[in-house]
Design brief:
The complex is a heterodimer of chains A (441) and B (179).
Chain A (H helix, E strand, L loop, with lengths): L5 H9 L7 H27 L14 H12 L1 H12 L5 H26 L25 H32 L4 H10 L7 H34 L11 H28 L7 H31 L3 H12 L3 H13 L7 H4 L2 H28 L14 H24 L5 H7 L5 H6 L1
Helix pairs in contact in A: 2-15, 3-5, 3-9, 3-14, 4-5, 4-8, 4-9, 5-6, 5-9, 5-15, 6-7, 6-8, 8-9, 9-10, 9-14, 10-11, 11-12, 12-14
Chain B lengths: L8 E5 L2 H13 L5 E4 L5 H8 L6 H26 L13 H27 L21 E5 L7 H10 L4 E3 L7
Classes of the chains: A mainly alpha (441), B alpha+beta (179).
Amino acid sequence: MKGLTYGAVTRDILRPLFKPSAAYLGLLGLCIALLAWGGYCWFVQLENGLGVAGYQPPVFWGVYITTFVFWVGIGHAGTLISAILFLFRSRWRTGIYRAAEAMTIFAVMSAALFPAIHVGRAWNAYWLFPYPNQRQLWQNFKSPLMWDVFAVSTYFTVSTIFFFIGLIPDLAAVRDRTTGVVRKVYDILSLGWRGTDRQWRHYMAAYGFFAAFATPLVLSVHSVVSWDFAMAQTAGWHSTLFPPYFVAGAIFSGCAMVITLLVPMTKIFQWEDYINLWHFEHLAKMCLLTGAILTYAYGVEHYIAYYSDNVYEWGIFEYRALGDYDWVFVTMVLCNCIIPLLWWVPSIRRSYWGLFIVSIFINIGMWFERYNIIASSLAHQFDPASWVYYTPTWVEWGIMLGSFGWFGMWFVMFVKIMPSVAIAEIKELVRPPLKLDEAAK
Amino acid sequence: MIASTPGSITSAYAHLDCLVEGIDRLQRAGFSNLVVTSPTPRHEIEELLYKGRPSPVRWFTLTGALFGGTSGFTVASLTHANWPMIIPAGKPLVSIPAFIVITFEATVLMGCLFTLIGLITMCRLPSFDLQVEVTDPRFSDDHFGLVINGLADTDAAKVRQILRDTGAIDMAGMELAHA
């Protein structure tokens, strides 16, 4: 941040706002087209019922739950970067945390679609929440699915509050540089923020508490998601390893997604003074650490299955690696365990192309990891007579692609209407304007 | 040009060290009704104005967390008591391990929501009606604002002298009394 001034920070970060280029509109159009296709596929499912999905007994969890877990996992990095690294006073978080937080919100919004899509009768999805009702029917709070509803909705609420609170001073900076109706809109969004001493004092105290609340959520949300599986008796799922394994995987995929999104943004908006290889190298190292934990978890779960001498347990792990789903297993290991090792080579993790390409492989690998866990275990349960091979239909693939369009649409809109780098926090890192410095010149 | 309201003098500073000196000298001269506006939080300013006193927002946080934890566990327990399923193997109706997750999530959720209420209340948000002198757009960019409120006409000259001596680049207010 050497050589930067407060004025330059405001100017540079607000520069990309409001002026959409043809390429930008094309990208937004592509996202909306994907979303429209996903919407059409969902419409087909609503009209015809869940039969249009590839479900067949005993496989009733498939692409929808896989994609749900994938998006919840992606949503981890934002809060990890914004909350945990804030508490650790990590300086490299400042440039990237805003975009990572936005990614979190949009990823959880994408994840939230899938329980409703998965249950088929989406209009009854509100039954998931406890509300006073005539028949005194209540949810089973001992069910991990119920825990999941609470965990994901709490995570979404807390992350959204944290994101919005962080945005308030920057929205005020946008307001002060706009006119007319736009100014009025930003004034309302920033709640009339003026940056007075009183406001900053309470703001900083509250921000610390939000970070402290969000920190355990980073670890708890995917632990609870993992219990959706681990609490069941299904072979390949019933394991105490799942919570740390899922959390490591979530941080791994989330950091990779941050790299995927921010590398092109940094180049397009010329933000290299604020987000550069120094930040990306830290993210890559985070991926190397969590990727190593994940690889260890893959090894441990196979070894424990073998060592347990339980034929059902070992049977499923043998089936995953060598059975009908071997291609899924190979994709997962290749993308999550082998390809990220390239980042041990400094020249690769310090190159934008090296970062971008490897991060794409991690995103793919992490989707297949969830597919590997869900599809293989359900398709190959205790009773051999019920074994099937689950194949997703075009409707399921369409809805999954639509969720990428949904996520992309929000993110692409976000970068044009909100400051994607935290102006006020970057200014905390920049040397303030001092008379002393001017006198020294 | 910055604005001001009666009984107030408004100033703008381009340098943080000048602002800090200005606040310090004003306080030593007995002027404590100050409003400082800055583009980013600065510990130097908070230390001078609040002398390390913690924000009361923390009490909102504690109340919310306690309320959330208690209500989460209570809702889970009462709903199960309301529909008592006969569970074999002597498993309890109110199960502490199973309800820990709900209790934890409710603690975090309510703690956060109450902190938000605390923040909004203590910051007096939305603050659309703040005094006009703190609305200068430079204060969200690269300048600092310093407003001295509750001044008597006789104080104006002294305050303006301090502001001038400490390097304020722009001043407004109380001119008529000394024109």
